[in-house]
Design a protein that fits this description.
By secondary structure, the chain is mainly beta. The chain has 2 domains: 8-65, no CATH class; 80-138. It contains 1 helix and 12 strands. The longest helix is centred in the last third of the chain and has 4 residues, at 136-139. The chain starts with 8 loop residues before the first strand and ends with a helix.
Length: 140
C-alpha cells in the first residue's frame, strides 16, 4: 500500500452502486491514521454548493497515485483494456471496435453497455500493483 502526503495528486476508486470501477482525480488534504485519507476531488462537487469541490474521507485501499500518461503510437486494438473519461471520472472498459479514424467503441462489462468515445477521452488502463504501474499484458 502506498503512503500519500498532503498535496499528492491521486485517483480514488469508487465502489458505490452505479459507480463501481470508476476512478476520480483528487488531491490529498491529509492522512487519518493508517487506513484513510481526506481528499478533495478535482471534478466532483458538493450537492449543497455546486461551485465547491467535494471533500471526502476515503479508505486507503480506494486510493492510488495518479497514473502516468501512456502514449500509444498505433492507437488501441480490439479487446484492449482502457479507461474512458465520462461523467467526471475514468471508467474501465474494453475496446470493442473502431469507428472512423478517431473514435472507438468501449464495452463496459459491469454495465453491459457499449459507448463510442473520441480517442482523446481514452487512456490505456494500468493497475497499481505492489507499488508500481502494470498493464494487463504485463500481468499475464
Amino acid at each position: 500500500m502506498a503512503f500519500f502526503k498532503s498535496g499528492d495528486e491521486v485517483e480514488v476508486c469508487s465502489n458505490r452502486d452505479g459507480f463501481v470501477g470508476s476512478y476520480y482525480s483528487a488531491t490529498v488534504i491529509k492522512k487519518h491514521g493508517n487506513d484513510s485519507y481526506e481528499v478533495q476531488y478535482k471534478n466532483l462537487i458538493t450537492e449543497d454548493e455546486p461551485h465547491r469541490p467535494l471533500i471526502e474521507t476515503v479508505n486507503a485501499e480506494e486510493i492510488r497515485p495518479k497514473p502516468p500518461k501512456v502514449v500509444l503510437a498505433s492507437g488501441f486494438g480490439s479487446n484492449d483494456v482502457v479507461d474512458a473519461f465520462d461523467n467526471d471520472g475514468w471508467w474501465v472498459g474494453k475496446i470493442s471496435r473502431k469507428k472512423g479514424s478517431d473514435y472507438y467503441y468501449v464495452f463496459f462489462d459491469t454495465y453491459m453497455v457499449e459507448i463510442p468515445y473520441p480517442s482523446f477521452r481514452l487512456r490505456a488502463h494500468l493497475d497499481w500493483v505492489n507499488g508500481k504501474w502494470v498493464s494487463l499484458k504485463e500481468r499475464v
